[in-house]
Task: inverse folding
């Protein structure tokens, strides 16, 4: 993989870590016998800001950003509480985290950008684009949980906040990787293994735990329950691309009676995407059936091509 520039930026008293796929840095870091990328003369002038999902890190975009580069300059933040960024006690609602990104962009001298968000990061991207329309040229929502959890059939506030909180401690990094390989329903690769190791930290006794702590996970899920995401879609003025890990819904098909388990969500993703697409002024949908939630890991080239093509339209 191309090695991005890794650094930190102070965003209103919050230290954010970021990865930057910058042509000048990458060209300098390549070894003499490495294959050089295409000339940066072919690079489009729209920078791409990438926002990761819950409990992931900026590294989750490595494969996609490498495929996207050198057509677009790309930058991925570790969002508040994640990765190597600061972990304050509060501020885990989508609005505050979106403003973190805006502050980081300003400090780095970024003007108008295309924003790509995955999962929970797509919800943050949605808020960012609705609140700062002048700064977002295009918006890409990758497998976003569009419908508010309060509207999920069979879901209660307590269950949504508490049931999914992860506090797993693995005896070793190897056992963590073995457990994750069973969870991810696609072919494993050394690149994916390198990426998912950034989601956790090794403690002094050799055990491994997620970098995002349980109390922060709880704060994020509580804020998602309170968030009124559906109000943002009609406020979007830029072109929007939805990329659900789902097939196009069958007309007349109804949502499952409950939305609590993975198979129920898989069956409902298409209907959720179709529902919100109707509320967006300029929206297109790329249906990706037989794909897991982690599209950026499973099909990075397809995702990168879709983003690049969308930015050219």
Result:
């Amino acid at each position: 993989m191309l090695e991005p520039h890794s650094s930190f930026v102070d965003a209103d008293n919050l230290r954010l870590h970021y990865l930057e796929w910058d042509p000048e840095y990458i060209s300098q870091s390549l070894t003499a016998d490495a294959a050089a990328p295409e000339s940066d003369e072919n690079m489009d002038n729209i920078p791409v800001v990438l926002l990761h999902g819950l409990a992931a890190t900026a590294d989750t975009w490595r494969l996609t950003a490498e495929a996207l580069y050198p057509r677009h300059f790309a930058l991925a933040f570790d969002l508040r509480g994640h990765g190597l960024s600061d972990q304050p006690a509060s501020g885990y609602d989508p609005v505050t985290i979106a403003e973190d990104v805006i502050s980081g962009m300003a400090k780095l001298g970024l003007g108008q950008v295309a924003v790509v968000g995955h999962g929970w990061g797509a919800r943050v991207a949605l808020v960012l684009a609705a609140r700062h329309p002048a700064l977002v040229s295009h918006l890409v929502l990758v497998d976003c949980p569009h419908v508010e959890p309060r509207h999920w059939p069979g879901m209660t506030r307590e269950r949504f906040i508490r049931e999914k909180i992860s506090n797993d401690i693995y005896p070793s990094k190897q056992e963590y990787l073995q457990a994750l390989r069973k969870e991810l329903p696609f072919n494993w690769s050394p690149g994916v293994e390198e990426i998912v190791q950034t989601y956790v930290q090794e403690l002094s006794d050799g055990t491994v735990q997620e970098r995002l702590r349980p109390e922060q996970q709880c704060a994020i899920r509580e804020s998602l329950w309170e968030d009124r995401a559906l109000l943002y879609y009609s406020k979007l003025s830029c072109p929007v691309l939805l990329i659900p890990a789902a097939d196009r819904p069958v007309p007349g098909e109804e949502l499952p009676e409950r939305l609590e388990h993975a198979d129920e969500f898989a069956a409902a993703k298409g209907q959720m995407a179709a529902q919100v697409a109707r509320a967006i002024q300029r929206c297109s949908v790329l249906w990706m059936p037989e794909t897991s939630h982690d599209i950026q890991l499973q099909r990075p080239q397809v995702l990168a091509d879709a983003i690049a093509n969308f930015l050219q339209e």
The first helix runs from residue 23 to 29. The two ends are 28 Å apart (CA to CA).
